[in-house]
Amino acid sequence: MARNALSLFPLLSDSLFPDRFNRIDRLFSQLTGDTPLSGAPSYDIKRTGDNRYDLILSVPGWKEHELQIETTGGQLTISGKHEEEKGGSEESWIHRGISRASFRSSFSLPDSVTVTGAALNEGLLTISLLQEIPEEEKPQRIAITNSNSKALEHQE
């Protein structure tokens, strides 16, 4: 199961290290002939508004009823399990290179982020997120007073 901390403001190191591990995994896979370890779908995070984001997963060939999205205790979990193909068909596969393996990806959501919806279109699963920042955590502007200025009194 892939477990990711969902950062709406990812750091540079967040993108460097997973890429290095993916390269090493691909290199060993080429040397041994095995399939890469990571079966989790690739994903993008897109800002769609001031406090709105989309988590977009690449899930080509998956149907809505084969995918499951859950949130529990600050964790967003997306899983997929292909239904078994029924035999008896005249068709037979010559080669099957498209992965049909089940997957489970998990993302840690900050307390201020909620899932507002999901849609599957053209092999992309889009999960809409809303970041609601409480008033006490929003930036506040503080007025600066000049300590050198003295109050003037009206004299008669």
From TrEMBL:
<dbReference type="InterPro" id="IPR008978">
    <property type="entry name" value="HSP20-like_chaperone"/>
</dbReference>
<protein>
    <submittedName>
        <fullName>Heat-shock protein</fullName>
    </submittedName>
</protein>
<feature type="domain" description="SHSP">
    <location>
        <begin position="34"/>
        <end position="147"/>
    </location>
</feature>
<feature type="region of interest" description="Disordered">
    <location>
        <begin position="137"/>
        <end position="156"/>
    </location>
</feature>
<dbReference type="InterPro" id="IPR002068">
    <property type="entry name" value="A-crystallin/Hsp20_dom"/>
</dbReference>
<keyword id="KW-0143">Chaperone</keyword>
<dbReference type="Pfam" id="PF00011">
    <property type="entry name" value="HSP20"/>
</dbReference>
<comment type="similarity">
    <text>Belongs to the small heat shock protein (HSP20) family.</text>
</comment>
